[in-house]
Amino acid sequence: MSNVAPANPLEMLAYNLSLLIEDGQIVYVGTGLPMVGAMLAHKTHAKNITMVFESGGQDPSEGCDMPWSVGDPFTFRKTPMSMEMSVSFGQCALGYVDIAFQGGAQIDMYGNVNTSVIGSYENLKSILPGSGGGNDIGSLTEKSVLVGLQTPDRFPERVDFLTTPGYLEGGDSRVKAGLFGGPIAVVTQVGVYDFEPVSKRMRIKALNPGMTVEIAQACTGFELLVPDEIPMVEAPPDEVLEILRTVVDPRGVFTKMPGT
Amino acid sequence: MGQKYSTEDHLKRLVDYKGAREFHLNKDRRKRDKRMSLSEAVAEFVWDGDIFAETGFSYVRSPIQAYFEVVRQQKKNLTGIGSPMSNTSYFMARGCMTGLHLSYVGVEMRGNDKNFARMIKSKTAEIYSIWSHGSMAQGFKAAQLGSPCIGSKQLLGTDMFTKNPYVHVINNPVGEGDDPVCMIPALFPDVCIIHVQQADRYGNAVIQGPAINDVALAAACRKVIITAERIVPEMTIRENSNASIPFWYVDAVVELPYGAYPGCCPGHYYWNREWWEWLIRIGTITQENMLEFTDRWIFNTKDPYDFVEKCGGIRTIDHARRLAEAAAGISDDTAISFHYDEVIPKRD
Fold first, then answer.
1. For residue A257, what pLDDT band results from cuts at 50, 70 and 90?
2. ipTM
3. Which domain does A16 fall in, by range?
4. How does DSSP classify residue B296?
5. Max CA distance (Å), chain B
């Protein structure tokens, strides 16, 4: 029996994010779990990735701690150069960025994201921080990955406000709108989802250990597409968990469960 | 300065490229010593009713101590703009800002700004338009390029158009076939304050680390105030040839060490992380907390030195310097700990 404690749901989430990154890619990194996922990938299977940031840092040197913010000096530590914000986003449109990550208060069945309002601007229930760089990376990047805690409220059939485009109304509506790329995956505490190639509806791709289709559906406000065979995500190897806990996020800033 | 705006309506003035040009044409462009005190610079160049642009990355090399002076001088009817714009909340709470062109108001993972939400919900302040960071950055960049508008692949397909009267989708007029593009107008705020690591007395300014949108904003804004950690001899800047803002854009130069504190200033100091967590997690929660917080840190604080003293003085600011140098990799970071006691409010 291993004496390494099994992954908690946040660690599982970070691990699944890391697996979506391939070696050699240029990765657009935001704060929080995506940063953990990218750094874990960099320390394990994808040693030759290049990380770029909206605040301007490009390919920073490895640091001694986690950035506190996406504008932390760690994100431009000994960087060969930094770019202005408009120029850094421009790279996504130019085809120099392979993969980017995006969180949101709501994610819908076509991978559209809301970071603007719950309710509407005319009838506000709550106001969220706004797009930030979300719309930019989601509009321009070849492959984007959506990250969120999955509940029926957070995964409605239709977002209250469409801040960042996924596949819009499904089918070819994203291409017709003139957008590039699109979301390739959604990663939650339950598992990993992708989008069915024709309808562009969200589909279960793999479930985390202990999760079932019923749990996945119960956490979702719309009907998930369910393929005939659904693989389980294998628990992360002990050495990967060790790296996550001792090197990537040693203070547990992003991967320690609240209240533990 | 004696000049007036040719367009009084601030919503139109934001995109009035002819008016901005006219204003720039009438600025005193002589190379002269522009040094003055912070209170003089804010009093002279930040006007009631201005479109006020946030600079830096909201809390990275941002002129936060100058923002506090704007609040202390109780400027009125300001409109906020910037990407990002996380200092909006206290401008609104203290009655200085009555509306904004919104890209992002928040402190990333630290939580949502409940004061900002309250201000909007109670209609104390109004959202005039919404943007993404990149589309707004393109608007500032278009201004810097001298281009009245720019074709973008951002915002397409979204609901952002329902809350942004400035942007329009057209078919790319210089492309072939179906090719929707979002036309973004050049954006011209009235005033910005930019904090830099080095400037000379004339206003040539050196930015160390990411410039974010500041080079574009310095060109776009009608009025520009520079606050600087250090005022250096002009020849220092000439020898390195590394200014990114030329003196003729600049109206005032203020020597202001710790001017970006409690934010982070690359090469000088790391954030006071507890301060931001206190602001977002305790300060913004109720109107009463927000007033108490801003009383303490803005109205009852004279200047950056006073602010640093209240945060713990030399020990705090020296630790902040060590963290900034360690994060940047310019000191031996092996014995530096980034641990701190996160501010987590107790819940009953």
1. confident
2. 0.96
3. 9-248
4. I
5. 64
Residue A119 Ramachandran class (φ > 0 left, ψ -120 to 50 alpha, else beta): left
State whether residue A163 sits within 8 Å of chain B by CB.
yes
Q: Does the pLDDT value for residue A2 go beyond 90?
A: no
Bridge-based pairing of strands B191-199 and B168-171 is unpaired
How many alpha carbons lie under 13 Å from residue A209 in its C-beta half-sphere?
A: 10
Of A55, A77, A132, the CB nearest to B327: A77
* Cβ of residue A74 closer than 8 Å to a chain B Cβ: yes
Identify the closest residue of chain A to B84 by CA–CA distance. Answer: A132
Topology (CATH) of B18-148+186-333: Glutaconate Coenzyme A-transferase (3.40.1080)
Neighboring chain B residues of A31 at a CB cutoff of 8 Å:
108-109
CA dist., res. B290 & res. A126, Å (int): 19
Q: Which CATH number does the domain housing residue A26 bear? A: 3.40.1080.10
Task: Out of A56, A78, A85, name the one closest to residue B83 (CB).
Answer: A85
Q: How far is A184 from chain B (nearest CA, A)?
A: 18
Q: What is the pLDDT of residue B318?
A: 98
* Band of pLDDT at residue B346, cut at 50, 70 and 90: confident
The 3-state DSSP class for residue A95 equals: coil
Alpha-carbon distance A51 to nearest alpha carbon in chain B (angstroms): 15
Which of A31, A130, A178 lies at the smallest CB-CB distance from B108?
A31
**Cα–Cα distance measured from residue A257 to residue A9, given in angstroms and rounded to the nearest whole number:** 8
